[in-house]
Amino acid sequence: MENRGSSDSPASEGLGKQRLEALMDGIFAIAMTLLVLDVKLPATPKSADITELTRVLLELWPRFLVFFASFVILGVLWIGQIGYFHFVKRTNRWFLWLSLLFLMFIVFIPFSTDLLGRYPMNAAAIVIYGCNALLLEITLFLQWHYATHARRLVGAELETELVARGNKRMLAGICMYSTAIIFAFLIPPASLTLFVLIPVMYILPSRVDYHWTHSHG
Amino acid sequence: MENRGSSDSPASEGLGKQRLEALMDGIFAIAMTLLVLDVKLPATPKSADITELTRVLLELWPRFLVFFASFVILGVLWIGQIGYFHFVKRTNRWFLWLSLLFLMFIVFIPFSTDLLGRYPMNAAAIVIYGCNALLLEITLFLQWHYATHARRLVGAELETELVARGNKRMLAGICMYSTAIIFAFLIPPASLTLFVLIPVMYILPSRVDYHWTHSHG
Amino acid sequence: MENRGSSDSPASEGLGKQRLEALMDGIFAIAMTLLVLDVKLPATPKSADITELTRVLLELWPRFLVFFASFVILGVLWIGQIGYFHFVKRTNRWFLWLSLLFLMFIVFIPFSTDLLGRYPMNAAAIVIYGCNALLLEITLFLQWHYATHARRLVGAELETELVARGNKRMLAGICMYSTAIIFAFLIPPASLTLFVLIPVMYILPSRVDYHWTHSHG
Amino acid sequence: MENRGSSDSPASEGLGKQRLEALMDGIFAIAMTLLVLDVKLPATPKSADITELTRVLLELWPRFLVFFASFVILGVLWIGQIGYFHFVKRTNRWFLWLSLLFLMFIVFIPFSTDLLGRYPMNAAAIVIYGCNALLLEITLFLQWHYATHARRLVGAELETELVARGNKRMLAGICMYSTAIIFAFLIPPASLTLFVLIPVMYILPSRVDYHWTHSHG
To answer: Would the ipTM clear 0.90, i.e. be above it?
Structure first.
């Protein structure tokens, strides 16, 4: 059932969230697809044999790695975000602006991942990448906090435990990315290790998932 | 309520608005994402240290500013537009063409923002940017006027007060952008100040928002 | 009626059309947005004054014209297509492939419009542009014919008169574009005039619109 | 409430599939549209006559062919995927990640098709293209297997025969692409022939289609 702003229950009153979801899915889809444009075969003679072409392709590995890493990060954020949006029932002007802030930092991910891929040991690149990820975690947290505070944009029946679990999960991300940024000036490889480990942690199922399978519709 | 062509109320007869909304969200998503493609790191040696890379990044600030400004403007227009579309129940050929005109000027925003970012004190750039914004306000106003006149594409129960408030809000934008264009030839900095202040004014909640929370679905 | 997989009427059985509509709206949105990427300001000194910048912008007029023309053509096709899709209730494999063919020619419009914009008097450019438009009309006609023949993918209650009107409208387009292609070798300006007039003809409301306002949902 | 497809049955509980479908349609739409960006007219004098322009266009034929081939392959995969998604009722974290893997290989298709178009007889290019196609078939199979195993994400009433038919169809694709990869080192033209024949085979209607017309909604 659609409920685009329909009024069959108090929870669904107000501005629907479908337009926002459509914008989000569009921006994620484009950001993910644009990533491959950075993977370009350098000019190679038409007569290249298998050895030569293989060599050229192997030399492209940092581009492939950046592509893969960016895709995974965008995937983590997309799944994280639909997980929380599942419980959001309606939107308002402030929530839309928080979401647009979140999307602005999403759009920036290809830039900062590319920068990190080129200068993995440079503290400036690590800080920019870390701040981008940190700002994404913060805006995601603000959205969740704003929506759930006093059950502003979620159903009144939403369990307090679920709200707290979402908060904890995002605050953990904020702490970890802050730590990674601090390490940039001390032990750069530690920052890079955290950048790899944090998404992996979020790929694993969480106890929030349990709630998806019990309709809060 | 969705009303994808369904017929449960007179207001929902006719062509649905979902396809139009999908096209709009798609175009906004792409326009917003393409903005970051203009933020490109200039060729920098692989061996750049933190000082050098920081300097290169700081020199990119006009690009970052244009990116941020364009994103905010597109955000203002997207939120404004979904606010009004909330009350629109159906479409017809003329309304679709008004919407396509609106979208054509949206697609143009990256071009004119980029132009203004490069020549902020040049009256030609200010006029082009101002006209783009003005035409957006005008087409948005025409959409709203066309849809609400004699309750053509909105519900019959829509309050006259809300219609008037929407009209006023958009006519104010038209006046302000016209003023900014005139200032281009007299005091360019005054135009630029208006270009910054007008979106800010639209970010703030308006009394139109109140109606979102009271279902006109 | 939505019928996202639901089964409340025989007409809605089978594979829904929402995924196809989503793909179509996405492709139109991207094709429309990509058009502006061809409008690029040539390298101009930072110190350019208003006269110089105005001159550079005026020299861009063929780019603006191509942008505007392509946008209008895509708009005509998008509106035409949603008009017919309004009556389509379900899809099947053959219909999906016909739609993908249509979309393939849509994706090609930026290429052929750009070609025509650069060589407006060259018969080769006119033929390519004309064939692209012709193939779009043909695939749109095939979709409509396939969907309505024996009421295959439309509601059983659809009036024969409406089916015939749709057929006529699209066959007229096929004849006109064929004529324009033939003129390419005889009187190129006549082809160009037709290329401008045909979309204008389709912008005007048609008697098909009447049916939109009388629910066939 | 999300549940497009309503909550009247246990099968529709849990996280909806609409966001995933929106992301998929967005990524397919962008990948299909980006293909045309590779078809670029080389710099040609403004004064080119019809013979010269025709020659330039004819020399572009490998680009046109790659465009056409990529579009057909993406079309086959899009239709295949919506066919199976028709029966999927809900998603979970693992299924979303399987789908993102699938989408990552979709995003890669323009790169590997372009590579094959430039080096059609080079085993390295054949292997990369073949592996991309193979990984797409494998991830599609894993999605289907994961969703249907113990009726995890599909309706409980889904016929075992349909599940088996889907499995067979995808395993056949996996075998054929594996064969094509092996031939790359022995008889490259045999690989290319398979690359053409496999999509053709999937364009033809299958017995899975029959089920679309009998509502499992």
So the answer is: no
